[in-house]
Specification:
heterodimer, A: 192 residues, mainly alpha, Fusion Protein Consisting Of Minor Coat Protein, Glycine Rich Linker, Tola, And A His Tag, Chain: A, Domain 2, 6 helices, 54% helix, B: 180 residues, Rna Polymerase Sigma Factor, Chain: A, globular, RNA_pol_sigma70_r2 (chain B), RNA polymerase sigma factor (chain B), RNA_pol_sigma_r3/r4-like (chain B), transcription regulation (chain B)
Chain lengths: 192, 180
């Protein structure tokens, strides 16, 4: 095979498909007229195309279409737009944040603002715990400071004030008397 | 892009799933056949065909509707098939008894029929040996009858590459089957 035939054979595939440009097309045609070997080569390429087309594809299994349809249905269902879901999804973090805030506020309120502790805004260290025993009417039977204020007279004053008060609202749900309760009292400013 | 493809795609994007079923009905035979010719295995071809349509459905929003839908769909199928073949340690052996042979005329001529049967087997075996990139181009041209431009679009390569791959594929096959 000479160099000219080699070059032409590189173009034969494109020639077979009609994809050569005009100049290439003419070059191949002119060569084929005078070259029986390249004609035979082209004929073989044509045969191959024909044989490739005749290689049969095995038919899909009988339930293939059904399986394909089922799989697609799953996909459709999975991706079907759910109008309320995005709205709910946005609400979930908001609801969680709100719940956390409520719990914090509630626990703070219960801890710092016990019913007996009216001095809102006082820090924990500016008050003193008192254990009281109440009778059935909420009157103070006995009272003990959690610790001393450091001043005997102030201790007495605080206990005196406590004993002078009634705490019927602290008896709710309690059983048996005297009922023991714990209160917090604000300390006077000069003791801070 | 075929008008019916464009209309159906529009409908699918609006949430009409039946429109995608119409697309599947239009293309599944061709997609299956193309993949089968590459993998030579029915079960694998069925799975890959299924995956092709699932991927197409998922990616339909991103499809550039100025381009041919079939080329886009085929590209998905070919990419999935190539990835599948890469993952396989070795290609499956094929049962070639299923080969259907030519026309009744050949059946009427037993000698010719036998010759043809041998030739078909030989070509199929040699096709399997072709590198995937050459084989794919050959299948798209010969079986799918795509133009070079369509093949280039489908595979994301240049027309020149299509031409050179086709030429190499045909000459390799010709040498293997008929000799130099």
């Amino acid at each position: 095979m000479d160099e000219r035939c080699r070059k032409i054979r590189e173009l034969l595939s494109g020639f077979l498909d009609g994809e050569l440009n005009e100049a290439e097309q003419k070059l191949v045609e002119d060569h084929l007229i005078e070259c029986p070997l390249c004609q035979k080569h082209l004929a073989r390429l044509q045969d191959l195309d024909q044989i490739i087309k005749e290689i049969e594809v095995e038919r899909p299994s009988h339930d293939f279409h059904l399986r394909l349809a089922r799989r697609l249905k799953q996909e459709y269902d999975l991706r079907r737009p759910r109008p309320y879901l995005p709205f709910l999804n946005r609400l979930i973090p908001l609801a969680a944040a709100a719940a956390v805030i409520i719990i914090i506020l509630l626990s703070t309120h219960l801890f710092f603002y016990h019913p007996a502790f009216k001095a809102k805004g006082l820090k924990p260290e500016r008050r003193i715990g008192v254990t009281v025993e109440l009778d059935s009417l909420g009157r103070v039977v006995s009272a003990d400071l959690e610790h001393s204020t450091g001043s005997d007279s102030l201790d007495s004053l605080l206990l005196e004030k406590i004993r002078a008060r009634k705490f019927p609202h602290l008896l709710e749900g309690g059983k048996g008397f005297p009922a023991q309760r714990r209160l917090y009292l604000p300390l006077p400013k000069d003791t801070q | 892009m075929r008008d019916e493809d464009g209309l159906d795609i529009e409908q699918v994007l609006k949430g009409d799933y039946n429109a995608f079923n119409r697309i599947v009905n239009r293309y599944h035979t061709r997609v299956y056949a193309m993949i089968y010719r590459i993998v030579h295995n029915r079960s694998d071809a069925e799975d890959l065909t299924q995956e092709t349509f699932i991927h197409a459905y998922r990616g339909l929003k991103g499809f550039d509707r100025r381009r041919p839908f079939s080329a886009w769909l085929y590209r998905i199928g070919i990419n999935l098939t190539m990835n599948f073949l890469k993952k396989k340690s070795r290609h499956p052996m094929v049962d070639i008894d299923h080969l259907a042979l030519a026309s009744t005329k050949l059946r009427d001529n037993p000698v010719r029929y036998a010759e043809k049967k041998i030739l078909l087997k030989k070509v199929e075996e040699e096709m399997k040996k072709l590198p995937e990139d050459l084989k794919t181009v050959l299948i798209l041209r010969v079986n799918e009858e795509m133009s070079y431009e369509e093949i280039a679009q489908t595979l994301g390569i240049s027309k020149g590459t299509v031409m050179s791959r086709l030429s190499r594929a045909r000459h390799k096959l010709k040498e293997a089957v008929f000799g130099g």
